[in-house]
């Protein structure tokens, strides 16, 4: 053996010695507040820490990354108030945390007295206390989790009385004490994963089918990358977590608001990103719509009763308190004992597609073909569903926590209803054919500006100030309905003549939309619901149906007709025609298969689908559409309600601006308007408009800037709750700008280093658009030149507008949490806008 070899051997043994020391606590090697032990792979460390915003000292296991990330806390309910603590092994073998007075504040609490043990932090983040005589683990942190769940952790079902094996939230981001939310698996009937608020369900995964939880949308992509249920030979089961790519630090954490998140570390950003969360939206909250209610994010309001059911307490329901739920309109045939109705027709089943099936499913082992008859034969069976891997599911007394998914996630559910409620809400054959020579005289008291639009439009178009044309034959050429707008006394009566707009028959539209069936509902437009329709041998269409008896809706309807029928641009949605028959007033548009930008961008299931070049072309498309409105078209139009849900996408994801219900037309050199009626959407409204009712092209530019930042970041302006930072997107962006960390704003899904300069340029332009002072904001033509790099030197932005009013709307999360979760942020109207 050479000397060198000998020296190497010595070095090697010293190194090994060093290694075993750094990941282990021995009675002879306690750790003080300033010290840590580090797992052999250096991924994890154990030591004292203080959460952000707190001075308390906790002992915890932390991810060894640049952002402090604790995944387990020992003395969570008994923090230390100074740095005098130690972690050590007591004579009885217990692992303990001691304060400065050597009092035990936390202990592993093993009672069988051991004398010789040591604590080791393993590479898997598991902290084990082992018996030195045989190396067996006698206690492990895996079995006493805090708020986080990592690869390989095992959670047993909660049924055990004394089981502490649950993930429990912190009380607040700065307070690690046990909070009210917990997370675990409930093995009853069919295993489901729950988040509980104390002992009440707060979120539910839906049943486990052996591979996925069928109530988690697009769980397929979480397969082998998330939590799953593992059965054991003796019939019991447990839940475990695994992640597809082990080289990316990933974990689940239950935050203090009950939000379960999968967080992944992104090296490029030196920060965690939320890759999945259980609470995407309000509909994910357990039993949001009460018994027999169904939650659909695209509906407004989001809760409706199942067909055949009506609100139990209509007063509460209409106030938006849906927890009271719904009840049957008509008693089921099978429940009637009365011989008088013996001849009544059999009950039937209504099919709901792509839903999260209700809670309390009972499994029966019958074939699919017999599932329905089995349910029918039992009067207390209210619904059934059949799902691969689970089999026949049936429900008893009430149906709770049903959610309608967009897309094909979820299962088909068959709900039992009485014959008379069998979905034949309205029979076409009974519809009275009305004489179409009708004159609809509407007395609409609206602000003078809408009338000014008509005056202006008439003047422009007909070259005639005394406009008195007629709304032409809107049905079959012979009839002539007239809209007469009677305005304030000082205004004349104006009548509007619409030509060139094709007319659709009501019956055809009703057929095309299956009688405006709720399953065909695409969303809620400015003045009424929008349905998808299919014309026989024709294209798919979108039908906007004016809510009946709504004077304001009528004004917006007419406004939309006037504005949009004159416009033609590839980035504006195309109006195909209209329909005015009886009480029905409808507009027909080209159908946009990719729905709205809102759904595409903020629905995490879709996000991967939009890469940077696509997002770039969407931003540019919106900009070009806006330029056309502001400058290119014969009329100058201020949209006033530009937002993600008003941008529709065609099959190639080309953006089309829609919803001109509150747009305004300007005279040639007029460049600013005033209104007493502020209409728009908070978060997108420029401050001068929201506060003072002043609007101009620059207020549209502001909204465009918000949209741009949302598209680049993939985050909704008003949705910063996940980070537990009460910030709005604009404020966040402004902070990052000042810290020169703008890249942190970029959606990680589009982060490619080769695009970075371009992305940063876009953000810069976005910040210029949202500047507080309207005059500082560039015109949309300039914005487009800046984006395309024709204008190379961009001025530094001044502080964006996040006015007190906006900030409070954006940052407060009251119990009634609509705004932050609503995908469908409905246009709101504030009448007192000064
Ligand atoms: C620590 O890690 C090194 C290399 O990563 C490995 O060679 C060694 O065996 C590990 N030690 C222990 C005790 O696992
Ligand atoms: C964290 O990990 C890095 C390697 O990734 C290592 O160099 C460093 O020492 C670790 N930090 C601690 C506190 O262990
Ligand atoms: C810290 O806590 C101890 C009790 O655990 C208490 O006696 C002491 O006064 C506290 N010190 C401060 C500065 O609050
Ligand atoms: C240990 O036991 C004590 C007394 O029974 C109890 O107060 C404490 O909460 C236990 N600690 C843990 C970590 O279970
Ligand atoms: C504990 O066990 C280790 C390893 O087996 C041994 O080196 C040490 O002397 C023991 N300590 C006591 C106090 O028994
Ligand atoms: C959790 O439950 C408590 C009462 O048990 C309630 O006050 C609180 O609002 C609930 N939290 C949520 C987010 O529902
Ligand atoms: C089933 O077996 C596992 C180990 O295989 C054991 O941990 C569990 O306690 C057993 N459950 C029951 C109910 O016997
Ligand atoms: C895991 O992630 C790393 C880093 O992002 C990547 O380089 C690697 O290709 C990924 N592995 C797999 C199997 O996806
Ligand atoms: C994030 O989620 C998607 C599916 O939603 C998955 O494909 C991807 O692998 C996840 N990323 C990580 C790092 O787990
Ligand atoms: C509905 O709820 C309100 C308030 O909770 C109550 O006063 C009223 O009696 C209820 N009505 C019915 C029909 O239960
Ligand atoms: C909602 O309605 C239920 C039952 O009708 C009632 O008990 C509860 O107090 C209501 N909640 C609110 C916030 O009004
Ligand atoms: C029908 O009869 C059963 C018992 O025969 C009774 O419990 C139930 O209340 C009756 N239902 C009605 C609606 O009369």
Automatic annotation (TrEMBL):
Catalytic activity line of the entry: L-seryl-[protein] + ATP = O-phospho-L-seryl-[protein] + ADP + H(+); L-threonyl-[protein] + ATP = O-phospho-L-threonyl-[protein] + ADP + H(+)
Q: Which InterPro entries has this protein been placed in?
A: Bulb-type_lectin_dom (IPR001480), Bulb-type_lectin_dom_sf (IPR036426), Kinase-like_dom_sf (IPR011009), Pan_app (IPR003609), Prot_kinase_dom (IPR000719), S-locus_recpt_kinase_C (IPR021820), S_locus_glycoprot_dom (IPR000858), Ser-Thr/Tyr_kinase_cat_dom (IPR001245)
Where does the signal sequence lie?
Answer: 1-21
The record describes its membrane topology as:
Single-pass type I membrane protein
E.C. numbers? 2.7.11.1
Which residue numbers delimit the Bulb-type lectin domain? 22-142
Example GO biological process term? recognition of pollen
Apple domain residues are 334-418
Query: Which Gene Ontology terms of cellular component type are present?
Result: plasma membrane
The portions of this protein that span the membrane are 438-459
Q: What is the lineage of its organism?
A: Eukaryota, Viridiplantae, Streptophyta, Embryophyta, Tracheophyta
User: Where does the Protein kinase domain lie?
Assistant: 516-802
Output the superkingdom of the source species: Eukaryota
According to the UniProt entry, its GO molecular function terms are:
ATP binding; protein serine/threonine kinase activity
**Protein's UniProt name:** Receptor-like serine/threonine-protein kinase
Q: Which UniProt keywords apply?
A: ATP-binding, Cell membrane, Disulfide bond, Glycoprotein, Kinase, Membrane, Nucleotide-binding, Serine/threonine-protein kinase, Signal, Transferase, Transmembrane, Transmembrane helix
| Subcellular localization(s) per the UniProt record | Cell membrane
Q: Which family does it belong to?
A: Belongs to the protein kinase superfamily. Ser/Thr protein kinase family.
């Amino acid at each position: 053996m050479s000397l060198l070899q000998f020296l190497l051997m010595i070095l090697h043994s010293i190194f090994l010695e060093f290694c075993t020391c750094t990941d282990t606590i021995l009675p002879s090697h306690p750790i003080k507040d300033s010290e840590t032990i580090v797992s052999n792979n250096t991924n994890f460390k154990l030591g004292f820490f203080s959460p952000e915003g707190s001075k308390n000292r906790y002992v915890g296991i932390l991810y060894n990354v640049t952002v402090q990330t604790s995944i387990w806390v020992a003395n969570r309910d008994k923090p230390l108030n100074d740095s005098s603590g130690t972690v050590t092994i007591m004579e009885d073998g217990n692992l303990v945390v001691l304060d400065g007075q050597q009092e035990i504040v936390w202990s592993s609490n093993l009672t069988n007295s051991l004398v010789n043990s040591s604590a080791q932090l393993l590479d898997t983040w598991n902290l084990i206390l082992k018996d030195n005589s045989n190396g067996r683990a006698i206690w492990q942190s895996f079995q006493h989790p805090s708020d986080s769940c990592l690869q390989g952790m095992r959670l047993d079902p909660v049924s055990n009385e004394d089981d502490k094996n649950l993930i429990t939230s912190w009380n607040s981001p700065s307070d690690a004490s046990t909070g009210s939310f917990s997370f675990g698996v409930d093995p009853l009937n069919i295993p489901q994963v729950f988040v509980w608020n104390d002992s009440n369900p707060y979120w539910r995964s839906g049943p486990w089918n052996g591979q996925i939880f069928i109530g988690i949308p697009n769980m397929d992509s979480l397969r082998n990358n998330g939590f799953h249920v593992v059965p054991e030979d003796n019939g019991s089961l447990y839940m475990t977590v695994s992640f597809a790519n082990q080289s990316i630090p990933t974990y689940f954490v239950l935050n203090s608001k009950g939000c379960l998140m999968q967080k992944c570390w992104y090296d490029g950003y030196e920060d965690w990103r939320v890759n999945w969360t259980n609470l995407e939206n309000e509909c994910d909250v357990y039993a949001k719509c009460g018994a027999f209610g169904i939650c659909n994010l695209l509906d407004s309001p989001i809760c409706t009763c199942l067909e055949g059911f009506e609100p139990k307490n209509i007063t509460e329901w209409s106030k938006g308190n849906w927890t009271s739920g719904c009840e049957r309109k008509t008693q089921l045939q099978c429940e009637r004992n009365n011989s008088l109705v013996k001849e009544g027709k059999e009950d039937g089943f209504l099919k709901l597609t792509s839903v999260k099936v209700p809670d309390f499913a009972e499994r029966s082992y019958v074939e699919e073909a017999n599932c329905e008859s089995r349910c029918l034969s039992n009067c207390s069976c209210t619904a059934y569903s059949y799902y691969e891997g689970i089999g026949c599911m049936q429900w008893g007394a009430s149906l709770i926590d049903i959610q309608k998914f967009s897309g094909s996630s979820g299962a088909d559910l068959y709900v039992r209803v009485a014959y008379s409620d069998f979905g034949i809400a309205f029979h076409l054959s009974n519809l009275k054919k009305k004489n179409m020579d009708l004159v609809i005289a509407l007395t609409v008291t609206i602000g003078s500006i809408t009338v000014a639009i008509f005056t202006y439009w008439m003047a422009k178009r007909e070259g005639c100030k005394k406009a008195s044309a007629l709304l032409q034959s809107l049905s079959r050429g012979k009839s002539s309905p007239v809209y007469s707008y009677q305005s304030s006394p000082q205004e004349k009566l104006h009548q509007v003549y619409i030509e060139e707009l094709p007319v659709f028959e009501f019956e055809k539209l009703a057929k095309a939309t299956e009688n405006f069936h709720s399953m065909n509902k695409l969303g809620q437009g400015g003045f009424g619901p929008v349905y998808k329709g299919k014309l026989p041998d024709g294209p798919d269409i979108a039908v906007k149906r004016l809510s009946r008896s709504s004077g304001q809706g009528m004004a917006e309807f007419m406004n939309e007709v006037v504005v949009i029928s004159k416009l033609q641009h590839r980035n504006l949605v195309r109006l195909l025609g209209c329909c005015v028959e009886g009480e029905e007033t409808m507009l027909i548009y080209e159908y946009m298969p990719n729905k709205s930008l809102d759904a595409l961008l903020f629905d995490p299931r879709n996000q991967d689908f939009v890469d940077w070049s696509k997002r770039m072309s969407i931003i540019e498309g919106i900009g070009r559409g806006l330029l056309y409105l502001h400058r290119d078209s014969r009329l100058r139009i201020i949209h006033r309600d530009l937002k993600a849900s008003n941008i529709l996408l065609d099959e190639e994801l080309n953006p089309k601006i829609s919803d001109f219900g509150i747009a305004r037309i300007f005279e040639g050199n007029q460049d600013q308007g005033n209104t007493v009626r502020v209409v728009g959407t908070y978060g997108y409204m420029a401050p001068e408009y929201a506060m003072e009712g002043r609007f101009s092209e620059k207020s549209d530019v502001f909204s465009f800037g918000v949209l741009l930042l949302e598209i680049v970041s993939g985050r909704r302006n008003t949705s910063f709750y996940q980070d537990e930072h009460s910030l709005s997107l604009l404020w966040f962006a402004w902070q990052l700008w000042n810290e020169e960390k703008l890249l942190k704003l970029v959606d990680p899904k589009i982060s490619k280093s080769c695009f970075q300069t371009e992305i940063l340029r876009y953000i810069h332009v976005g910040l210029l658009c949202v500047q507080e002072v309207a005059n500082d904001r560039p015109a949309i033509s300039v914005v487009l030149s800046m984006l395309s790099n024709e204008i190379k030197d961009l001025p530094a932005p001044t502080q964006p507008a996040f006015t007190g009013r906006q900030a409070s709307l954006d940052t407060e999360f009251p119990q009634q949490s609509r705004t932050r979760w609503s995908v469908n942020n409905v246009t709101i109207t504030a009448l007192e806008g000064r």
